[in-house]
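Render this sequence as a predicted structure.
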Amino acid sequence: MSPAQKYYLGIDIGTYESKGVIIDSECEVVSSAVVNHSMENPKAGYFEHDAETVWWYDFCKLSHSMLLRGGISPDEIAGIGASALGSDCLPVDMDCRPLRKAILYGIDARSQKEIEFMNEYYGKDVVRKLFGRPICSGDVAAKILWIKNNEPEVYQKTYKFLTGSSYITAKLTGNYVIDQFLAQATFKPLYNDDGSFCTEHCALYCKPDQLAEARWVQELAGYVTRKAAEETGLCEGTPVITGTGDSCAEAISTGVLQAGDLMLQVGSSLFFYCCTDHLIHDDRVRGNNFTIPGTYSIAAGTNTAGALTRWFRQEIFRDIRPGLDGHDMEVYDIMNQGLEKIPPGSDGLITLPYFAGERTPINDPNARGMIFGLRLNHTREHLYRSALESVGYSIGQHIDIFRECGVELEKISVVGGGTKNRLWMQIISDIIGLPIQLARVSIGACYGDAMMAALGTGRFTSFAELRQYIHLAEVFMPNFKRHEVYKKYRKIYNELYRKNSELMHQL
C-alpha cells in the first residue's frame, strides 16, 4: 500500500445499533465495526436515546475499534463524516451537555397535543404553505414545543436544540451545524429555503440562535478538537464534514444520485428516499429539496419493518434460542424456514404493520396493527410471512403515490439490516413487480458518510463522481406469476385501514 494513502471515516448512529467504516481513496472498505445498543420506551408513544451513553459512546468505541482493526494511524484519516437518526430533538447546554434524553424521530408520538395546537394556530392553508404536508410526529418543531410546554426547566437552560448528527459534529469540532437539507426537511418552519433562520416562525418555538447553522452536507463543519481527539483516538485537526441524517447518508451509499433513483432503507423502520427533478406536494408523503444541490426528493417512512420482525422473534418465536455464538441471525434464519412453501398471500392472511402507529402514507400515530383473515389452518409461519408481506404492500402503496406524482422510477436500491433476509427481498420484488438491487457494500449510512467525507475534503469533485464506486452485488427480479396473485391481496390491504381506522381510534 502506498505510504501516501489516505482514508476516510464514516460513522452512523442508528435505532438499535451504530456502524462505522473506514474506506480508502477508491471507496474500498478497509475496516468496519458495529456496536449494539437499546432504545428506551419509557411509556406508550415515547422513544428515547441517551446521547452521551449511546450516541457519543458508540462513536468513540467505533473509532477506536476501526483504527485498531485496520492497523490505521489516526494521522492517515483525511476526513470524517457522521450521520444519526434524522429528526431527533436534543436540548444541550453551552458545553454541549444533554439536558435530557434525546426525543427520537417520527416513531415518538408524544407531541400530538402540540401538533393539534400548531394546526389550529396556523390553519390548514398556512400549514400547507409552511410544511408542504400535514404536520407529523417527525417534525422537530413540535418536539421543541413539547419541551417548552412540559419541561420548562429544561427549555430555559437550553443553549441549542440539536438533532443527532449535529450533536456528534459538535462533540467533534465544537461547532453547531446541520445539513441544510435536514434542517429544511425536519425543522420546518424554522429555516428558510436558503438555510437561514426564519426569525418570524422561530418566535413560537425558540430563539434563532438556539438552532444550528445550516450548511451543505459535504461542507466542513470544523476540525477535531484536542478533547475529541483524546476521546475518539482520532488526530487533532482532522477535517469533519457537516454530516446528515442516517437515511440521507444511506441513500447516497446506494447511489441515489439523480432523478428516478429510489432507496428502500429496511432497518428497524422502513424509510424511502426518491430523488426527483421537481418538488412534490402530496399530503401522504414529504416533498423537499435534496442534499445534492439542484435536486429534490420524496421522503416517506413507516414505523416498523425490522421492529416488526424483532417483535415476532421476541414474542412469537421466543422458544428459538441463538446458537453457541449467540448471534440472533441464526434465529431469523430458522424463522424463515418453510416460508417459501407458503403461497403468496399467506393462505388468505393479511397484516397491517401499524404496531407502533404509522407515519406515511396514513400519517396516523394512533393506528393499530392488525392480523386479518385468521383460520385454524394458519401457523406462526403464516403469521410471519404475512408480516413480511405487509412491508411489501406498504412499499407498493408508496410507489403508487410516487407514480401519481409524476415520478418515473429508474432504479430501486435496498439497504439496511433487512437485506440479510433474501426471502424478504424477493417477496418485496414480487409484490411491487419491479427489480430491486443490492449494492456490494451494504453496510449502510456509514459508507455514505465516508464517501461524502472524501467528497468534502477534495478526493472527489461532485456527487455524480461517486456513482462509479457503487457496485452491485445482487438483483432481485420479480416473479410475475406471484405478482399477479399479490395484486388481489394488495387491494384488500389498501382498504383495511380505511375501513377500520375509526375502531382503531376507539381503542
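Summary. The radius of gyration is 22 Å. The first strand starts at residue 7 and ends at 13.
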